[in-house]
Amino acid sequence: MTKKIFLSGIYHETHTFLSQPTTLNDFLINIGDEIVKKNTDNGSPTDGFIEFASKKNWDIIPGIQMAARPSGIVDLDAENFFDKNFFEKLEQHCENIDAIFLILHGAMVSKNHDDFEGDLLEKINHFLKNKKLSIPIVAVLDLHANVSDKMIDNSTCVYAYRKNPHSDSRDAAIKAASILSDIFENPNVNQINYKTKYILPPTGVGTANDPMKSILYEANKIEKNDKDIICINVMAGYSYADIADCGFSLNCCTKGDVNVAKNYLATLTNVLKSKIDFAYPKENTLEEALEKIKSLPKQDKPILLIEPADNIGGGTPGDATDLLSRLLQSDHEGIVAIINDPAAVKECYHHQVGEEIELNIGAKFDDFHGSPIKLKATIQKLSDGKFTLENKQSHLASMMGMNIDMGLSAVIKNKQLTLLLTSIKTPPMDLGQLISQDIYPAKAKFIVIKAAVSHKDAYDPIASYSFYIDSQGLCTSNLKRLPFKKIGNKIIAIN
Fold first, then answer.
1. What is the mean pLDDT of residues 188-215?
2. Co-location of 67 and 150 in the same domain
């Protein structure tokens, strides 16, 4: 008999220290058949599920899908809109479905729910029990999920990305769907959640480096050697959510002895502890980096100046000026940078390409990301800001699919700097962002990148050297700078 799978999702990574809320208008929304139509062959996790379902001849019953770029706490209108549409669709189809498959992030915080995904899964579970239905609930999670016990207790199996940058988000959905297929045949599975006391900054959780590299290696060995283990998720957590469940965790889905699984997770926690120094990396001041650069062999490739404190993929506004203003004061040339500044773009649109313009750039979102830069430059390009990813497996595809909208955009240039101004903040995860605007990053001398790890697949191959710079911003790697209130005795720094 053909399986019928109810497919829905909500995807948001919530930075609770940002003052501006995430509204309903900030979400891309697909309802019903639009979910399949808009996500087929777009490189997203939903696309991965659609492909697997097609091969299995499953019938997809689409509910609602919502996704927004990382930003502040999700407001009431957005959460109510999702709940209303989700449960209306579920009510309509529940008697005829064999499973629920969800595309989630795992670090969403709304006005009424610190643990949005956990509360959602609990509501789904209660709904099914009231209908006297017993069907699997399988979910895909981002590696940066803050996993709660409630998420684990109210789902059959969750499966998380294995890579950071997230080049495997589509593959993760395919794997999760294959697990669901197996659960149809062998439904007796259990999940365990194992929390740790550590909250790790995004700069410390790239999977090419320790501690994540070593933990994932050991987790993979366990999965291969013990056939009862369906999956082990190594959850880096999202450190800018001031909630009780914030932090690094491990969870496991198993067909076997739960105590054996618990011992595995305890062993992996010891691996984390042995590598914990790597989780809190030291960053350079800009002055330190520029001094080090003087002694480096000359290269034809650009030098990356990474600005994690304004990590757009972590939620910050993308308009920080601290690093860029100081770099411009150093008299270096050949600089490429991106600033999200709708007001500056609007001003550019009052002029023509080729005109010289004086603008106050950046630092307009809040008081945490520097002061505006007064800049005189020539307008090089005006565009709608739409582009297609160069890399279909880009980290950005996991969030937004293949086709990206930066809003109205402008490129301005002077002797020192080529600057892309956008109206919608867009994480620098794909070279297509710059190339689409006739900026060729490989020809730059310096590229300022507002990211932590997600840029690496795109930018590391074209770079000669890379320096992480300590600067102003609410995605700072120094978590001691943030006013946490709800995390209890969690460890946010060492030494």
1. 97
2. yes
